[in-house]
Amino acid sequence: MNNIKKLECDVIVVGSGGSGSSAAQAVAEHGLEVIVISKDPLASSDTKICEGVMTVRQAGEDSDSEQVLANNINLAGGDLPDKKITTAFAKDSKKAYDRLRVNGLRPHINTNRNTPKTLAIAMGGHNKSRSVGHKNSGLSFGHVNWDTIVKFNNIKYFEDCWFLDIVKSACNQEVVGGIAYDACAGALLSIRAKAVVIAAGGLSTLFFPKTDTMRGNTGDSYAIGIRAGAHLVDMEQIQFLPFCLASPPSYEGLLAGEPATGSFLGVIRDKNNKVILDSVYLRTRAECSEAIMRAVADGRGSPNGGAYLDMTANKKARRSGKFFMEYLKSALPSAYNNARQALGKEAGKANIPWEVRPSAHYMMGGVRVDEFGRALTYDKRNKKIRPISGFYAAGQAMGGLFGSNRLGSTSLTEVAVFGHRAGEHAANYVKRNKLKINESDFKDQHEKFYKMFNHKGKFKAYELKLDLQKKSWEYIGAARNKTGLEKMSNYLNKIEKKVKDIYVPLEMIWNQQLIEKIELQNMILSAKAVTFAALNRDFSLGGHVRLDGKRKKIFSNPYSTLVFFDSLYNINVDKVKREKTKFKILLKYKTNELYRLYSAKLIRILPEALRDRIIENKYKKILGSKATSIELQAGSLEAAPAEVIR
Amino acid sequence: MQSNSFYVKIILFRGKISSDIKYLYKKKNPSERPMVLDVLLQAQQERIDDLSFRYGCRARNCGVCTVDVNGKPRLACRARVKEDDVISPIATLPVIKDLIVKRDSISRQLIGFNNISRKNNLNVEADKAYHNLTACIECYACLDGCPLHKKNNLEDKDNSAYQYGNPFSFLKLYRLYIDPLTPEVEKKRIIEKAEILGLDTYRREFEKLKIKCGVGIDLKNEVIKPLLDITYGDQVEKKYK
């Protein structure tokens, strides 16, 4: 074993995106040594390619109290969110945003309020004006994350480096470090550290190419997490964006629009031209996805397995039509460009309907953590939940913040708030901890991973990966049913056996087969967690659409699903009860939702000329606002035309 | 009518050996106009299962998929490919394997920069020049044709920083420089760093400098020129205006 490099630091951070950079900064500011492990180039994460709109409490309105924001997230998430975590989110969002600004994030400023300028329109699901847009979208965040990691002399970073597993001590089960594969150097890194922060993103690549996120989202966070003993929570809750492209191949999966794009008169139609969902702009992403996937399941889908987003009525309106075009082009410019390039000129002019299909966008579940980002497990001896000492997760890696539905623009806040919280707690933990790290704890892991090289076998990892991606979309994608989930479960058992028979050559430098195998294993384990969690919830809720199940009754008792390993590394499932929002608050929220929907339906049935004038005025209000000069880009939920604030 | 398949040449590097592969791309439908990335994904699926290349968002945002097409840097996800095109790793960075190049010797040039005080009023606007620079996706297309970057020893594959700068590193420095919250002391450091990275070379070769940004930022006039002006003052004004 010549190719093992031994390193030591205080905290390992896995991932260099929004969460990873925030965590690394928090640790580095304590004067501790950090090693950042990133398989993609520095800061090339979902944060870099996102819409760049961030939730900042009170940016738009002083009445936006911590309680108001926390309630908003809890209710949107079907009461699945962990209330301690949503409270922490609401409490820290401003501080987290200011930290990014100290690092170089520069929003436009509302000089009257002396706050960052919010979008003119409340983002989907928000009840206050608190979404701050940024020039060049996620790229502006990408630069800040990059700068933050590069800035500290006590942060070392490794690109092109795959973090393999957390190493725990044999006696007390505390974290003592981790193992990584440095593909450029052709070496295994064996890193001693008292804490590890997993900030390695989501699992959307399970559904590739039906996804609009970074390729690196191979479920690493969840697989590493469950292997290290953590519980995974809400794993059935994957957020799919309904209006993504189904063709041509180069554009497959990319964002074409959001529910808001449909504007006042947009509807979804099946292949028989029948309206399957109206008032699209007021619907959640999940509702739109469900409508499309039901049509597909019934054989009424479009040629590429989707449906049609029909906005032609908006365009045809005599007075408001031209405003609609302006709105369509400016609300989500990069999504619009994707659609125009992919679907052609006539589609670009909204003269014909767009063929759309859902795409995987965000994992709302993840490693179960407390409000400090500590990964949680079940302690059999004391029969209670306890943190795993030294193991943290943040950002898309963690679960418990969004429950069954994520409000637009909240993920950037999630990464900044909980990346920092995890780093901060880890730093303090390391400082207190007098643990002596024993080299022998690493020995088994060295051998295990070293053995992966030069492995004879008849399967190719890449081929198995492609097959897994197809099956994942079919059985655990945007629409699910019991038969499919059971088939998936069997399939995963079979493919797990094949993984043992994968060919991996000896070469140490950039061993592609090894990389594919590592990622495949993580994808399989994540898919397993999703499948088991999905079987454990036999009705539709938020991102989890069960075509064969009933809808959740709004007054039923909320619970989250749990998935974890037992002592024999078999997957177990459980449920955890969640606190229900008070009836009065819930009723108010639901009434408001219904009121908006019925107002929208009313507009649709008004006489054409009157309707046209009303809509024209609404557009003028939105487009006339200065805030629209900020270009909003791919992935965003903003610009619901009916939700102009004040 | 165009045929339903066509040949593309892919140049791969393994160890010290390079090999040319003639790959027959099969269109998924007759009207398909594939991108370079489509070719690479299909080649991996059909023929070379261990083909190593980078990609990320497939939408021109993440900047990691840059390869050379017929000798010029292009983003694989948004570069159309046609018969007999040659795909190779970008020539301006050391190749690790196939189309993968080592990128981090560039970011390491800036370790220790970006020091903004915490005590500022954060509610300040950055001007347009600043925001123009955050459009950079770090694709490294700008290394092509850079007379300064050319001086670096590309054989070095350890984790150390390159000695000489490039349009990207200067963009990063200049962005920090024009950040309204960057303190004067730090600005001084930034200019010193620019000089250490060899800004002087641009001064001498400004007229014939041909650098192209992958996403259309006017690097010459929005990064290099203002940096030269700040660093070398009036002299340059007279000489190059």
Keywords:
heterodimer, A: 646 residues, alpha/beta, FAD/NAD(P)-binding domain, Methane Monooxygenase Hydroxylase, Chain G, domain 1, six-stranded mixed β-sheet, five-stranded mixed β-sheet, 18% strand, globular, B: 241 residues, alpha+beta, Ubiquitin-like (UB roll), Fumarate Reductase Iron-sulfur Protein, Chain B, domain 2, 2 domains, two-stranded antiparallel sheet, 8 helices, elongated
SSE map:
The complex is a heterodimer of chains A (646) and B (241).
Chain A: E1 4-8, E2 11-14, H1 18-28, E3 34-37, H2 46-49, E4 54-55, H3 66-76, H4 83-102, E5 109-110, E6 115-116, E7 131-132, H5 137-151, E8 155-158, E9 161-168, E10 175-182, E11 187-192, E12 195-198, H6 220-227, E13 232-233, E14 238-245, E15 267-269, E16 275-277, H7 285-297, E17 307-310, H8 312-316, H9 321-331, H10 333-343, H11 345-348, E18 354-363, E19 366-368, E20 374-379, E21 384-393, E22 398-399, H12 411-432, H13 440-450, H14 461-476, H15 482-499, H16 512-535, E23 559-565, E24 571-577, H17 583-605, H18 608-623
Helix pairs in contact in A: 1-5, 1-12, 3-4, 4-12, 6-16, 9-18, 14-15, 14-16, 15-16
Chain B: E1 5-14, E2 17-26, H1 36-46, E3 66-69, E4 72-75, E5 86-88, E6 95-97, E7 100-101, H2 104-107, H3 128-133, H4 167-178, H5 184-196, H6 199-205, H7 219-232, H8 234-240
Parallel strand pairs in B: 1-5
Antiparallel strand pairs in B: 1-2, 3-4, 3-5, 6-7
Helix pairs in contact in B: 4-5, 4-7
